[in-house]
TrEMBL record, chain A:
Biological classification of the source: Bacteria, Bacillati, Actinomycetota, Actinomycetes, Kitasatosporales
InterPro entries linked to this entry: ABC_BtuC-like, ABC_transptr_permease_BtuC
Membrane topology according to the record: Multi-pass membrane protein
UniProt cross-references to PANTHER family, sorted A to Z: FERRIC ENTEROBACTIN TRANSPORT SYSTEM PERMEASE PROTEIN (PTHR30472), FERRIC ENTEROBACTIN TRANSPORT SYSTEM PERMEASE PROTEIN FEPG (PTHR30472:SF24)
Compartments, as annotated in UniProt: Cell membrane
Origin: domain of life: Bacteria
Keywords in alphabetical order: Cell membrane, Membrane, Transmembrane, Transmembrane helix, Transport
A GO CC term assigned to this protein in UniProt: plasma membrane
Main subcellular localisation: membrane
Keyword tRNA processing included in the entry's annotation: no
Bilayer-spanning residue ranges: 42-60, 94-112, 124-143, 149-169, 176-198, 204-221, 228-245, 265-294, 301-322, 334-355
Protein name: Iron ABC transporter permease
Any Pfam family matching the protein: FecCD
Family: Belongs to the binding-protein-dependent transport system permease family. FecCD subfamily.
TrEMBL record, chain B:
Source organism (scientific name): Streptomyces albidoflavus
GO MF annotation terms: transmembrane transporter activity
Main location: membrane
Transmembrane parts of this sequence: 67-84, 96-118, 124-142, 149-171, 191-212, 239-264, 276-294, 306-325
Keywords for the protein's UniProt record, in alphabetical order: Cell membrane, Membrane, Transmembrane, Transmembrane helix, Transport
Family recorded in the similarity comment: Belongs to the binding-protein-dependent transport system permease family. FecCD subfamily.
Pfam families: FecCD
The protein, known as: Iron ABC transporter permease
GO cellular component, one term: plasma membrane
Organism ancestry: Bacteria, Bacillati, Actinomycetota, Actinomycetes, Kitasatosporales
Origin: domain of life: Bacteria
Amino acid sequence: MKVEEKRAREDRAPEMGSPVVARPPLAVRIGPFSAAVERRGAVAAVVLAAVAAVLAFVGLCRGDAWDAPGEVIAALAGHGDAAFVVQEWRLPRVTAALAFGAALGAAGAVFQNLTRNPLGSPDVIGLDAGAYTGALVALTVLSGTSVQLAVGSVAGGLAAAVVVYLLSLGSGLGGLRLVVIGIAVNAMLTALNSWIVLRAELEVAMAAVGWSAGSLNGIGWEDLRLPLAILAALAVLLAALARPMHQVAVGDDLAVTSGVRLSGYRPLVVLAGVGCTATVTAVAGPVVFIALAAPQIGRRLAGAAGVPLLPAALTGAVLLLVADLTAQTVLAPVALPVGAVTTVVGGGYLLWLLVREVRR
Amino acid sequence: MRTEPPRTALLFGVLVLLLAAAVASLAVGTRTVPPAEVWRALTDAPPGDGTTLAHHLVIREVRLPRTVIGVLVGAALAVSGALMQTLTRNALAEPGVLGVTGGAGFAVTLGAVAGLAGSQAAQLGLATLGALLAALLVYAVGRASPLRLVLAGTALGFVLAGFSLALRMTLPDVFDTYRFWVVGSLAGREQVPYLLPLLVIVAGLAGALLAARPLQALGLGTEVARTLGSRVRRTRITVLVLITVLAGAATALAGPIAFLGLMVPHLARRLAGGSVRLLLGLCMVLGPLVLLTADVAARLLLPTGEVPVAVVTAFLGGPVLIWAVRRYGAVTL
């Protein structure tokens, strides 16, 4: 409801001279550095981070039988019977959910800003499927080391992005046309992926099928080291790109006049977005919906005008944790791949988005 | 004004191609049989000798039913797509892309899990009901905008795929039997009773030809159609029923196969000029031609076993969707 009230206020504000005056941004100074922080955005970020922390702790407690919070804290410190299970099994999974959710949310924000379209997220327009094709090729043709998987999936995701971009040239980046072309590319790549899986040897194919839905089952620290390092590097890159991204989101002309070099900015930001998606896909398979929904939800929570990165990333982390907890719990003892949950919810969300757009 | 292509020559040409595809579908597979032997298998009584007998059995008991199913499913999907495109004047409309076949497949799967899909009639009923519900839902969400309809269909596909996956993980035994309702395939369907859906498809195709004239009048606009004495409402409802019954029966036979109903009508429209009846007639020949060709390719793509035919049609159909979006975009036909 809060969202609707807010929108109503926004709609009214310009022509009626609404009495609601936005409070001035908070000035934060640390030594020689200073930054202007929007109050509502800052509050939303703190709240989201707190929710993510609580959910992460719940995730650490969750097993076939729930562990008491005290035991889990002791286990984290390395004491008690549960230490191995918590540190080696649950902690990597929860870390993965947090980091991957944040990466997917940020990737979604990047592409939604780039296409200026809430539907232009990497999972809808086939970049996940392309990254998955790259990973499958690395797995079946090459030997499938984690470096090959990472490089293969990034290459696949970039190739898909280039193909979608080239095919929608002349119709503009925005609009539904790019999205539908992305859907067609997605369908072809999905077909290609299932062919590769069927053609591969059986053991490889079995591993890939569980993975093709997007799953965090059985993730360990050894799977995470390289991806986490890559994601950390991409986070730094995205933080540096955040300001030009918002300038570009307002309009190309405005961005150029306010000092953004578009030719340098675009390839970098695409690389960062595809890198985030592809790194997650290489480890967990294509997990849809987070990139689609997190930026929009985060944006509403933060009350921001564009599609900001930080709320998107934090919301993504919360969403993936919730989805993973649901996937483990809803049909227990069967552990669903988290992708099954996100696919259902994501499809429903997409339908709702369309219904709302029609009503407007 | 383009000159009408010589119709008889055109129909004759595509029929010859279809015949060639049917022969290939009978001859090609793990055990490839020369065409002459195929002919003998179809006409002569089974011989006593070992390998020849095996050939004859494969052709008569497996490949012949498979080819017949392929012909009718191809015709049903293509005609369903053509009717949908003509009725909604939407170049991107197609039972697969708009989630109608997906809905039909999911309804059969759900029925199977609930123990309802035992008989042919039950499967057919479930599939048609699922197709109808999916069509109404997608149309309610997407309204008249072609691009939005595609998105709504894709979104529905997402939801159904997620539920299917959850079902597959929880009930592996039940689901194994019904796996082809997730990804459409012509393989392994010969052993299942298929007479009733085939008859329904034949009736649906005949109905489509009868509905061609009022549909053509409707294509001129509602007002003009009324002036010409066409009963607009009745035509619309009839065509909607035909679309769902054809798509539902095809799905009950072979599972959801996307993109066939998109590719074939576009191809047929180039050949048919403006005539709806010729368009539908051509779809009935070109649909089977494309599906049988894709099915033969599906058998050759893997060293052992075969790819589900829906995978092949998706790969072929993706480019057609891209072309159609670029060519027509959001405009109506």
